[in-house]
Amino acid sequence: MKHAVVTGGSGFLGSHLSKRLLSEGYKVTVLDNFITGSPDNVADVIDNPAFTLIEQDVIQPFTVDGPVDVVFHLASPASPVDFPTKPIEILQVNSVGTHNALELARVNGARFLIASTSEVYGDPLVHPQPETYWGNVNPIGIRGVYDESKRFGESITMAYRRFKGVDSRIFRIFNTYGPNMRLDDGRVVPNFIGQALRGEPITVYGTGQQTRSFCFVRDLIEGIFRFSELDGNHSGPVNLGNPTERTMLEFAQEIKRLTESSSEIVYQELPTSDDPKQRRPDLTVAKALLNWEPVVSLEDGLLETIAYFKGKVGND
Ligand code: UDP
User: Fold this and answer.
1) Which of 53, 97, 173, 304 is deepest in the core (most CB within 10 A)?
2) Is the pTM of this model over 0.85?
């Protein structure tokens, strides 16, 4: 049985990845301090003998009973509402935490995969974004704590690859949504769906003309899993996301339609500076390397997500 360690494995993406790995016959150990994740996300597998959940802040030294075959480093708050409220935690988990996770991979001779982000491209001046683009990041802006620490995470991952021989792989996640997102996460998908289901105004920030491209979580996990299983020597980075781009105003209208909500759409000031004006992945590398591209339509993915949030609204 192969053994995978997933940092942040009870968060939104980590919980889906952990369950996929279990279904593929892996033994899975999750390390999470529950700063944004929750044991509830993995409650359905907690009694599975192949699954272990350990409360652990990965910025503190830790060991895991080996051998370990693969480390997935997903731990980090990732919502823009976390950037001003958990800035030091974000900087620490993506620096010290990444160092600790890399050490775990090194001592076990394990493969190491790091969840990086489209935020490494900042407010991009190249569109869509290929992996070769170096980005347009403001290091001293509110988003800098996330963007720069994720960039550092990529750098230390490459240093461990080049100088310590770790078989490392970097993937860059673009906006992803689906069940197990927190209703109060603050990102646009739970905000709009929660507001629409409660009949509250749907809050479009700024002009609503900024764009994003949304990937359903099942598609994203398929891409991560294929990358982890790929034979050969592949450092990445590889973009993973969905290339269908929409303005936030169009997105609000789509959610209003799919929830059959009577909510009005209102405009509010942008809460964080440097909000990227456009974002869409160039998936050329992912398609060639992984033979992967998203298959779930926005409508189908949103309907599944809306059904999940319907069970949460009213209990929040
Ligand atoms: N946004 C919005 N209303 C909200 C929450 C977010 O219009 O209630 C916008 C936000 O300004 C950004 C986009 O939606 O342009 C995506 O925001 P999110 O927080 O989901 O993540 P980001 O892609 O900015 O990291």
Assistant:
1) 97
2) yes
Non-local (6+) Cβ contacts of 83 within 8 A are: 90, 142, 143, 145, 146, 272
Backbone angles phi, psi at 73, to 5 degrees: -105, 100
**To test ligand 1's pocket by mutation, which of 173, 212, 263, 302 has the most ligand atoms within 8 angstroms of CB?**
212
pLDDT of the residue at 315: 67
Q: Check 26, 121, 133, 146 and give the catalytic one.
A: 146
* C-alpha 187 – ligand 1 centre gap (Å): 6
Start-to-end C-alpha separation, the chain = 39
Local confidence band at 9 (pLDDT 50, 70, 90 cut-offs) = very high
Question: How far is Cα 200 from Cα 197, in angstroms, rounded to an integer?
Answer: 8
Domains, the chain, in order of start with CATH, read 3-176+215-240 (3.40.50.720), 177-212+244-280+296-310 (3.90.25.10)
Lookup: tokens for 162: 């080049």
pLDDT for 66 equals 84
Helix or strand run (H / E) with residue 84: helix 82-85
Would you say the CB of residue 266 lies under 6 angstroms from ligand 1?
A: no
Distance from the alpha carbon of residue 61 to the mean position of ligand 1, in angstroms: 34
Looking at ligand 1, which residue's alpha carbon is closest to its atom 1? Answer: 188
Q: Is residue 146 flagged as an active site residue? A: yes
